[in-house]
Amino acid sequence: MFTRNVVNLAEIHTLVPVIWPLKSAGSSTIPAFRVRCPAGFPSPAADYCESALDLHEYLVKHRAATFIFDVCGDSMKNAGIFDGDKIVVDRAVEAKSGDIIVAILNGEHTVKRVWITPTGIELRPENHLYQTILLKEAEELIVFGVVVGVVRKLT
């Protein structure tokens, strides 16, 4: 069974202690350069800021429906989601085949890429060391939300 938005928002913190609702912190703008930053050879880019980027506005489209999860494990590393990262999850976005989602499968949370195939629903990891989860008819899948961003500190 493929269910959406079944979890009672008032009970979220009792179900999963690693979910963080977004706090209303006002504007958090950071200077932003309009110059692309190559990851290869240095570029003679201009040394001035052309605008400001509000990270909250950039990552969050639906404030009341957006949550942060702490990631544990490495099943999604090839999608750029690593152990210790924080993922931004939007419950207002309708999940479609190929999206990375936070799912509740038989009462347990997991982050996987969802694929809807003619034979059923698959939750695929992005690490070859893990197996695809093929949903059986008796299993209940709840899509908590779609992963719309990843936050990681480098130091």
CATH topology: Umud Fragment, subunit A
Q: What does the largest sheet look like?
A: 9 strands, mixed
Level of helix content? under 10%
- Structural class, by secondary structure, is mainly beta
Written description of the protein model:
With 155 residues, this protein is mainly beta. It has a single domain, classed as Umud Fragment, subunit A (Ribbon), CATH 2.10.109. It is built from two helices and eleven strands, in the order E-H-E-E-E-H-E-E-E-E-E-E-E. The chain has helices at residues 12-15, 55-59; strands spanning 2-4, 19-21, 29-32, 51-54, 66-70, 86-90, 100-105, 108-117, 120-124, 133-134, 141-151. The strands form two sheets. Strands 1, 2, 5, 6, 7, 8, 9, 10 and 11 form a nine-stranded mixed sheet that branches. Strands 3-4 form a two-stranded antiparallel sheet.
Task: Annotate the secondary structure layout.
Elements: E1 2-4, H1 12-15, E2 19-21, E3 29-32, E4 51-54, H2 55-59, E5 66-70, E6 86-90, E7 100-105, E8 108-117, E9 120-124, E10 133-134, E11 141-151
Parallel strand pairs: 1-11
Antiparallel strand pairs: 2-5, 3-4, 5-6, 6-11, 7-8, 7-11, 8-9, 9-10
Top keywords for this entry?
nine-stranded mixed β-sheet, 155 residues, globular, disordered N terminus, 2 helices, single chain, mainly beta, two-stranded antiparallel ribbon, Umud Fragment, subunit A
